Amino acid sequence: MADAVFGGRVQGVAAGCGVLRGYRLSFTLPSRRWDGYAADISAFDGAEVWGRLWRISDDQLKVLDVIEGSYRRLEVTVERMTQTDDGSRPEQISAVTYVVRDDMRAPEDGVPVAEYLHHLLTGAEECGLPAHYIEFLRASSKSPGGLGG
């Protein structure tokens, strides 16, 4: 999600970028706000989901719980990319992400609307995510029915 969108919802500090392995990006939440489908992640062997990591307080996490009412928290281990003198190396860290609640999840993936996907792409570019993942996000607007990684 674009920094400006996330920052407009809760107060937090950007804490780098990372990858969650064994999950895929999907669009399984029918959204009246977006008049299309909102993002979700689903367990999927061999796939990966990249994104911005944020450090937020427990109080701000509670605010986010309310905002993300159609989602539930999921504790995960992600690989945060850490810059070193000889390049980038992954660091395993615990994180919280949100997944669509079972009672809200559509049986099949839908296609996100352009404005929603724009926020995801902007966030990916701001964070400097790998080019292959940014291209994957661009292709998402044309690919219903499950997105691998």
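Second entry:
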Amino acid sequence: MSEQTRDATRSAPRAPWLWRGAVVLALVSAVAIVIARKPAADAPADVRGAAPALAVSHGQATTAGVPRLVDVGADRCVPCKMMAPILAQLRNDFAGRMRVDFIDIWKNPGAGDPYGVSIIPTQIFYGADGRELVRHVGFISREDILATWERHGYAFADPASPGN
């Protein structure tokens, strides 16, 4: 190869717009897949179906006929770690009236599949009949958990709040 050809090859533009376009296309595709897999939060409960049976109940006795909160996450994710004491407290405060389950998808990668979760943490609220009521993605406080239950007809007197 001649010196002129080598210099021309080095100075040729590399089309940075092509790479940027490919990255944008990949991101848009990933978002579209996540959105397509996520059930609508406002869909009727009978469309979203009943709760899968798979869950870790942390030694709770079977509590058929009570509402259930399933937190799908991992013990190594920061928001999941922040939620762990909240879930433990809810489990203790409302034993027998609310079932609280945690599913660690890093330790058990297939365990989240029946729930259709693609982002952690995801909390899934199930009614006493086993039907999904609503989902929440990300950290959620104890107060917001109890408010979510109340919006769906389950009033839990909070023993942790003043005056109770």
